[in-house]
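Review form for a predicted model. The reviewer records the input and the model, then writes brief findings.
Reviewer: anonymous (R2)
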Amino acid sequence: MRRSDYQMLRQGGREFARTPVQPTATMVLPDQSIRSFTISLQFLGEVERAGYETRMIGSQRNIIGSRVAFALLAAYCLLGAATVIVDSTRLLHNPWENTYFESPQTYAAIYAAQTGKLYIPMSQPPYTPQAYAPLYYAANACIASYVHRDVDLFILYSRLMTYVAYLLCGLMVFMIGRAADISPLHSLLAALMMLGQPDFLGWNISPRPDMLFLLAMLVSLYCALRWEDHVWRGYGLAGVFAGIAFLIKQPGIAVAIAICVVLGAQKQFKKAAALAAGALAPVAITFVVLYWRHDPFFQQIMFVGKSFWSIRDAATFVVSNFITPYWIVPLCIGAAGFSQAVTMGNKPKMIASFALVNLLVGLSGLPQVGGYVNYLLPGIAGCALLLPYAILLVRERVRLLASLALVSAALIWTMGAAYTYDRGLSNYFQPPTDAPLTWLRPFRILSDRTTMNVHGREPNLLDPFGAHVLELTGYWNSAPVVDKLNRGEYDLIILTRVTFRHVIPFFRGISYFSPDEVAIMNEKYEVLCSTMESMVLKPRWREVAATPQMFSQLFNSRCGTGFRRVPLHLQLAPDTR
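Model under review:
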């Protein structure tokens, strides 16, 4: 058969495939050649129709599969956000701490409202590091003045400020998506994904700066995207908010670095200069004011540089805390979105840079012994911003039903794991009792749960872990606390996280209390009462106006006196310092 005849035959088959097939037996054919040609057309038409129908079935399956995957993605974002928001709201009035430690910020705010000083030297009580930037402490001082230095009201209002900032972070993720020309639906999913990360629970309702500086960073990124063609309105304003983010918590500078990386790659040096000038202005003004007021802020904000650093310890921490589906899936979404965003325009590139730089900054802080999961929360917000680009990537490149099934299975797995973790975390933060702690105010208290300290009289060691780190690195001496313990000045020592073997709590190999402090406790104090995981001590040679019944109510469990007859034997965990 000639090539031209074959092409004519194939074209005829395609046309024939679109018409109903008539049985050959009913056709009246003039001769054998026409009969053969008709049979050939009929055969090719059947083949073309079969292939077309197969492709249609496969396409329909992929459409159904992608819709199912998208529905599961929406459920993952919505369920996560609803769970975290509801559980966070329940913990706003928690009389105990929502994270460790809330008390340093509480005491510093009341101190600032009284004295006008934002920072307290480590050489003075309460012997507590203040590692955050000055604008955060200034905001807390305003709250403390507003509530007339009431401890409980300050904690509530400060939690509310943090919680509102967390919700506004979700709003800013949505607005950034709209500024980057992303559809309202995908922008909303990105916002819900950020709000629904389980590890935001606790940090979003605690007197801490994490939500505040994240909000300032997101506003900075929004300004750069919203007014990208305006040097000062866009990038100058973005720089101001980047400077504010840095003045709340030092890693806030990451947003300025992220934007400058993109501007530098595109040789838009005028915009980068405007960004830098905008960032430097509030930082310079704040530092000049603090220096003029003789605030010891440099001594305190350099805490991170005085700490222990270990890459091996950081790797162990990453494996034990981040190899979970509710971290792996968001990071995979971020990676997929990043690979798509960097091939697109200026706005997607800035979002991709924001996510990458914040993840790198968070990871770079984890080798510091006090590093925790909150270091990576801005990076998770960046992954949420990349969600729309991940959806675009999947729609453009994923055609196999098996791939969509894998994505769906991962989302189902993550939803279950995230919900379980969130519920467990919420239950962990729930106090044994909702009774207020005001009855502790007559006592001098030392505790591993420092909300007890700050409710007591003349509180000390509001961050015992941080103080012990400074002692180990040679930047502080625990002699004043040891001397007070030796004289029995602390009326009560309340340990809420000791094991049945009376092991002092620790974090990443560092004990909450030094060996010298523990030795003096064993020598000078005795058990007032204890539970399976809590212990209350009093000085050996004097009585205090506290009874086991008071602590039974506090712990919502009988605080027994059986260990009164047993010598006190507090100890450090093996391989801790």
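Findings: The chain has a mean pLDDT of 87.
Further findings: Strands lie at 445-447, 492-495, 506-507, 510-511, 525-530, 535-539.
Recommendation: see findings above.
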